[in-house]
Amino acid sequence: MAMREITSDQRVADILARTLHAHGVRHAFGVPGGEVVTLIDALQAAGIVFHLARHETSAAIMAAGASTISGNPELLVTTVGPGLANAVNGIADSFQERIPLIVISGIVDRETRARYTHQVINHAQLLRPVVKASFEVEPESVASTVARALAIATAEPMGPVHLDLSPAVAAASSPGKTVIFPPAQFGAVASVTDPAVRFLAERIRTAERPLILAGLEAARSRAGPALQQLAVTIGAPVLTTYKAKGIFPEDHPLSLGGAGLSPLADRVLLPLVQAADLVLMVGYDPIEMRLGWLDFVADRDKLVDITRAVSDHGMHHAGARISVDPKTLLQALNGAVTERRSWIGAEPAKAKMELDNIFSTRTAWGPHAIIDHLHRTAGDDSLVTVDSGAHRILLSQKWLAAKPLSLLQSAGFCTMNAALPLAIGAQVADPSRRVFAVMGDGGLEMGIGELATVRDLALPLTIVLFQDRSLALIAMKQASAGLPPAGVTLGETDFAAVARGFGGYGVNVGNEDEFRNELEAADKRKGFSLIACRFDASAYDGAF
């Protein structure tokens, strides 16, 4: 890693912040406390903007949204004890969503830590299950520690790394004046003569029913064009996880859309996958899939895993594994295969038609129609985030994504109240893009304070609220188990009034004309808009 001398007197916090900036970090999110005031000052001086959130878990997910759009690690800042404890759910979300989050928490100074108990907990122990590593920053090694944390966070599978920083250390004059810059990156380039490429080309040549299952790593590695070329050349249908939607244009005849949480979709897709005689798992991480995908084929020799990530699951056991960047391998593979016809029984086309029928819109108003109208309004260039709940499963199945990483969600951890902070982080990272946050009433009530964050950052977000006065997904699970509903009914909050109270625009709608008009009007506002779409939760019956 390159190092650069800082000649003027620098605090430890300054070296830390400049090293973060050198590695591409541009945004920090959090709630300040006395233990991190020096750090926040150093971040601002280094060109890393600190954004105030209303809750630390939301701040972590904001950083995740910004990281997904920027392609760089981003930063969560918390104070000691309760600040970090508040953030645990958001950090766990980044762990299972594979986000290279850097978490810096204030900690009580070392000389008082052993005998002082106020707000003191073991931060590293608290976070051990949900971070890749945890370190305490020391004056003599600050730049090296930060660079190490960034290297660990960005190694596949990506994830959060935690740093403790005490006030005295942050404010101390740094004995070392170097900022460590990232090394120049030169990935290995595969060629048609590589054994792995020859192996795959031969497997494809002899396969009659090849299928591609693509995941988040493939989307982040920008493997889309190479994957599209391969799929069309060999006639392989493409199935993705929810977070990889759009890596293959979903209006293409070979696209089978996303999979992961819908039992109705699984009834169509799992038999097709089981009928395949070759499944190329490209950057695929089964953390997004429901139990039906635990062992989705009986013959492991059908499965070829193409990923740089170290496997940390036992959800399938591939017969072959190629540890390489998916984009690089697919580009080389395209030079080694020839055009051919596959699936002579047209089974993928039949499956696609069946899926289209299952998720078709049958009523003029309700969750299906809301998704249709939003899709038409958003277009291909907007970014949409969606919260956990029944609406997320339906939207993820109906939504036709044209570009990768244009539909953001918590699909591995499936935490509630992710859509709004994801949207905030994404729009902070790219203010030029129109962003929609799709939420349920339960999710919004869980993190409604972040409407103040949207207001204070002057973000023109459009929040589309599916207001069915129910935790509908849980109610459906209770019903499927033969149980009466319990703890799933919500009162009718006037979210339009709440939005106005937070300084935004709020409106309640109950039909397609009102919704369409409000979507168009929201695009012209400088501030945020909240459109509460009211319907009965029974509209989800049999929907997915």
TrEMBL record:
<dbReference type="GO" id="GO:0050660">
    <property type="term" value="F:flavin adenine dinucleotide binding"/>
</dbReference>
<dbReference type="InterPro" id="IPR012001">
    <property type="entry name" value="Thiamin_PyroP_enz_TPP-bd_dom"/>
</dbReference>
<dbReference type="GO" id="GO:0030976">
    <property type="term" value="F:thiamine pyrophosphate binding"/>
</dbReference>
<dbReference type="InterPro" id="IPR029035">
    <property type="entry name" value="DHS-like_NAD/FAD-binding_dom"/>
</dbReference>
<dbReference type="InterPro" id="IPR000399">
    <property type="entry name" value="TPP-bd_CS"/>
</dbReference>
<dbReference type="GO" id="GO:0009097">
    <property type="term" value="P:isoleucine biosynthetic process"/>
</dbReference>
<dbReference type="InterPro" id="IPR029061">
    <property type="entry name" value="THDP-binding"/>
</dbReference>
<dbReference type="GO" id="GO:0005948">
    <property type="term" value="C:acetolactate synthase complex"/>
</dbReference>
<dbReference type="InterPro" id="IPR011766">
    <property type="entry name" value="TPP_enzyme_TPP-bd"/>
</dbReference>
<dbReference type="GO" id="GO:0003984">
    <property type="term" value="F:acetolactate synthase activity"/>
</dbReference>
<dbReference type="Pfam" id="PF00205">
    <property type="entry name" value="TPP_enzyme_M"/>
</dbReference>
<dbReference type="InterPro" id="IPR045229">
    <property type="entry name" value="TPP_enz"/>
</dbReference>
<keyword id="KW-0786">Thiamine pyrophosphate</keyword>
<dbReference type="Pfam" id="PF02776">
    <property type="entry name" value="TPP_enzyme_N"/>
</dbReference>
<feature type="domain" description="Thiamine pyrophosphate enzyme N-terminal TPP-binding">
    <location>
        <begin position="11"/>
        <end position="124"/>
    </location>
</feature>
<protein>
    <submittedName>
        <fullName>Acetolactate synthase-1/2/3 large subunit</fullName>
    </submittedName>
</protein>
<dbReference type="Pfam" id="PF02775">
    <property type="entry name" value="TPP_enzyme_C"/>
</dbReference>
<comment type="similarity">
    <text>Belongs to the TPP enzyme family.</text>
</comment>
<dbReference type="InterPro" id="IPR012000">
    <property type="entry name" value="Thiamin_PyroP_enz_cen_dom"/>
</dbReference>
<feature type="domain" description="Thiamine pyrophosphate enzyme TPP-binding">
    <location>
        <begin position="387"/>
        <end position="532"/>
    </location>
</feature>
<feature type="domain" description="Thiamine pyrophosphate enzyme central">
    <location>
        <begin position="199"/>
        <end position="333"/>
    </location>
</feature>
<dbReference type="GO" id="GO:0009099">
    <property type="term" value="P:L-valine biosynthetic process"/>
</dbReference>
<dbReference type="GO" id="GO:0000287">
    <property type="term" value="F:magnesium ion binding"/>
</dbReference>
